[in-house]
Amino acid sequence: MLFSTKAEYGVRLMVELGRQPGSTPISLSTVADAERLPLSYLEHLVAKLRKAGLVTSTRGAHGGYRLAMPPEEITLDVVVEALEGQVAPMECFHRMPDGRVLCSHEGDDGACATKLLWTRVQGGVTKALAGTTLAELVEFSGGGEKAVKGGEKIASAA
Amino acid sequence: MLFSTKAEYGVRLMVELGRQPGSTPISLSTVADAERLPLSYLEHLVAKLRKAGLVTSTRGAHGGYRLAMPPEEITLDVVVEALEGQVAPMECFHRMPDGRVLCSHEGDDGACATKLLWTRVQGGVTKALAGTTLAELVEFSGGGEKAVKGGEKIASAA
DNA sequence: CCAAAACCGACTGGTTCAGTAGGATTTGAG
DNA sequence: CTCAAATCCTACTGAACCAGTCGGTTTTGG
């Protein structure tokens, strides 16, 4: 498995926040209820997102979380990296601040045999993640409103 | 980290086998020595490769392993899958026998919010892996010969 | 004041990782 | 025939990570 449920739950959380149009914050328990995810686990995940500057929080009664930016400006590579840590195909692979890729065990002779492969893999993953915006996911999963099939609907913010 | 050292070591092992042109089998201890990897761990990995039909073995004295096919015909998706198990971005993602992708928790309403994302990621990874042959890695890592440890350059890589 | 909410850290059972250990079996060579 | 080299097989282990749970503190609106 490439990613753990941290990425899965965290992205679902972000999508849920991205649905809400206004600036009213949404409580975690609302999200947990809507997505059927454990609240106390979501707390850990949203903390990572907040530290990464992707969501903002307001404390106290009627508090909650909002996206820190419009969903069109949020690409999923940033989200996943915030949740899972730096995404690299292999332990020996590190992205330098200037963007270059380093393999820790390429010695005096040119290249280790696997570098070409992992470079391609990382390129594929990065392209897929960075080429997807949160707005796309919101759109894909049913637009601005939660699905209303079956008569059940979320309590409208009033 | 997307993959563990099983993929790393296993691919290095395959490349080492791919270097040898003839049909003489190479012992695991030779590979372990050349790549500086623990022999007893390599035994586990090569067992997976053998069960996947990627290498053949001959037992007894002067035995060892050979590639089951010419390296041009071996794509890395098969190798990595043999080592790591089915490569999917997420637990809920399963590739059906007919090639379709299923997300286990898409319920009555259309799609779960993350499916679009993971589909793209899996596409990127699969494309990178399936688009790379073992022959390419052998070529990239210094052709048929082992690297000369004297500051020699890999000028012939194309 | 009170309840709702964000925040924080500690803890836990389960699984995987990265090997190690100890053997059993097969085979070529002397 | 015997020995050494090799594949093959099962079991075990310490460490790390996963997926939560729990209890408690702080902030805030009504």
Using brief descriptors, characterize the structure shown.
homodimer; 158 residues; mainly alpha; two-stranded antiparallel sheet; 6 helices; 4 strands; disordered C terminus; DNA-binding
Main β-sheet description of chain A: 2 strands, antiparallel
Helix/strand order of chain A, N-terminal first:
HHHEEHEEHH
Low-confidence stretches of chain A: 147-158
* Ends apart, CA distance between termini of chain A: 41 Å
**In terms of quaternary structure, what is this?**
homodimer
- Share in β-strands of chain A: 5-15%
Largest interface by Cβ-Cβ < 8 Å: A-B, 47 and 51 residues
Main sheet strand line-up of chain A: 1-2
The backbone outline of chain A, from C-alpha atoms, is: elongated
Work out the number of β strands of chain A: 4
The helix count of chain A comes to 6
* Radius of gyration of chain A, taken over Cα atoms and rounded to an integer in Å: 19 Å
Mean pLDDT of chain A: 87
Structural class of the secondary structure composition of chain A? Answer: mainly alpha
Helix percent of chain A reads 40-55%
Structure write-up:
The structure is a homodimer of 158-residue chains. By secondary structure, chain A is mainly α. Helix content of chain A is 43%, strand content 9%. In chain A, the strands form two sheets. The first copy, chain A, has a two-stranded antiparallel ribbon. A two-stranded antiparallel sheet of chain A has the order 3-4. In chain A, a hairpin with a 5-residue loop joins strand 3 and strand 4. In chain A, helix 1 (5-19) packs across helix 2, helix 1 packs across helix 4 (76-84) and helix 4 crosses helix 5 (115-130). Chain A is elongated. Residues 147-158 of chain A have low confidence and may be disordered. Chains A and B meet through helix 1, helix 5 and helix 6 of A and helix 1, helix 5 and helix 6 of B.
